[in-house]
Design goal:
Belongs to the sigma-54 factor family. By secondary structure, the protein is of the alpha+beta class. The chain is built from 21 helices and nine strands.
């Protein structure tokens, strides 16, 4: 009797351990491999029914604008641009259509350009400018250096045309100019536009550091007005061209997405639209019920077989549910902890550990590690590996604010891109410039970040 009891316990433990291993395996699998795993299991188990994916559900996160009474002042701005009245009906109709999934920024802009009646010289210069934009939608060289002397006379008109195309904010020198252009496109004007421009050009770092009172004083506006302007800024896109970037591997299927929808809210979506729906075939359940009390040898064998297969199918379904619920919980925490990143981009990533997220959702750190392994998230800034949203940090010595490694790396990139001295900056000089911002980053660390950004050394760049 004791031996029989031990044997039953051992069998239960073996079954539990097998299910646990299977659950851990499903946790780790990226979406494309998970789909293949489901298909493999269905091919071996006749009781498993695999159906077309269901539509995904969104979990809304109300963004900053809902916090302040002054927000309506900025939400009410018109969507028409300064040159919107010049758009043809064909162009307006085109904008209402659906953009092709894999359309590049250049294709997207050229398609719009073809719907506008233009002088052929202006059109030609506009095409040259479009072909010179980087993936963010910005110029890498001065526009005047891109056209011949004979075409300089058409440059301003061509730029005006590009600035009326969608997405708003393209054909600029950097994200600051783009944000101002988007604000104008949204209808911001007068003193509000002056304050907004000054905010974007000179005070974003102080706002990120929580120095709103200091910034409001410098801009000579009420702090309430400043907060409303800053919230309005969050509805804009610093790098408008990135949504058309097709440089990533198209075979990658993101497991979840967090994107800005309706202009003022971030929405979490689990990618159920790619995952098939798994269930147990009721026909086999009925057969199992029918054979369960049978004395017939063949039916007893069939009952034993069906019981094992149905149990295996139910286990797979439970494991898929656990994987999804864990992924959603992690997504909710990321939405809260990294909301600045989803609103502003990589520069605003905050240091975050797997343990912090694990403690939030009540699981072991290894569970968070598994559910974030080999997974991708789709954002307004492109595709990211989930693990990239867990960066280490560097503290600002003046304010105590901690910046993520990704944010500091982005500062290095921006310093190099905005260098107008005519001479490439050395790693030590970049380190010194970061130190002026209160960020201690050694020369060798700058060198490492620069290599990760795929930017040549100062000697290769022209010192």
């Amino acid at each position: 009797m004791i031996a029989s009891s031990l044997s039953l316990t051992q069998k239960q433990q073996l079954k539990l351990n097998t299910q646990m291993l299977q659950s851990l395996e499903l946790m780790t699998l990226p979406l494309n491999e998970l789909i293949q795993k489901i298909e493999d299991e269905a091919s071996k188990n006749p009781t498993i029914v695999v159906e077309e994916p269901k539509k995904s559900n969104g979990v809304s996160y109300e963004e900053y604008l809902d916090k302040y009474s002054r927000r309506d002042r900025y939400e009410d701005y018109s969507d028409s641009s300064a040159y919107g009245s010049d758009l043809s009906d064909n162009h307006q109709n085109w904008l209402e259509g659906t953009v092709k999934e894999e359309e590049t920024l250049e294709e997207h802009l050229l398609s719009q350009l073809g719907t506008i009646k233009l002088d052929e010289n202006v059109s030609r210069v506009a095409e040259i400018l479009i072909s010179s934009l980087d993936e963010k939608g910005f110029f890498t060289r001065e526009p005047s250096s891109l056209v011949s002397e004979n075409d300089i006379q058409y440059l301003d008109e061509a730029l005006k045309v590009l600035h009326q195309l969608e997405p708003a904010g393209i054909a600029c020198k950097d994200y600051k100019e783009s944000l101002v252009l988007q604000a104008i496109d949204a209808g911001l004007k007068g003193d509000d536009l002056v304050a907004f421009t000054e905010l974007v050009n000179n005070y974003l770092e102080k706002m990120r550091a929580g120095k709103s009172k200091e910034v409001a004083k410098a801009l000579k506006i009420d702090e309430e007005d400043l907060v409303a302007l800053f919230d309005f800024l969050k509805t804009l896109t610093p790098y408008p061209g990135l949504k058309y970037c097709v440089s990533w591997d198209r075979s990658i299927i993101p497991d979840l997405s967090i994107k800005n929808e309706d202009g003022n809210k971030l929405v979490l979506r689990i990618n159920d639209s790619s995952l098939p729906v798994v269930s147990v075939d009721n026909q086999y359940r009925e057969m199992l019920d029918e054979y369960s009390d049978s004395k017939n040898k063949e039916e007893k064998e069939a009952s034993k077989y069906l019981k094992a297969e149905v149990s295996s199918a139910e286990s797979l379904i439970n494991q898929l549910d656990l994987r999804r619920s864990t992924l959603e919980k992690v997504g909710r925490v990321l939405l809260e902890k990294q909301k600045s990143f989803f609103a502003f981009g990589p520069r605003s990533l905050k240091p975050l550990t797997l343990k912090e997220v694990a403690d939030e959702i009540g699981v072991h750190e290894t569970t968070v590690s598994r559910i974030t392994t080999s997974k991708y998230i789709d954002t307004d800034w492109g595709l990211f590996q989930l693990k990239e949203l867990f960066p280490s940090g560097i503290q600002n010595e003046d304010t105590g604010v901690t910046f993520s490694k990704t944010a500091v790396k982005d500062m290095v990139r921006e310093i190099i891109e905005n260098n107008t001295t005519g001479k490439a900056l050395s790693d030590q000089k970049i380190s010194d410039m970061l130190a002026q911002k209160g960020i201690s980053c050694a020369r060798r660390t700058v060198n490492k970040y620069r290599k990760e950004l795929d930017i040549d050394s100062s000697y290769i760049r022209g010192v």
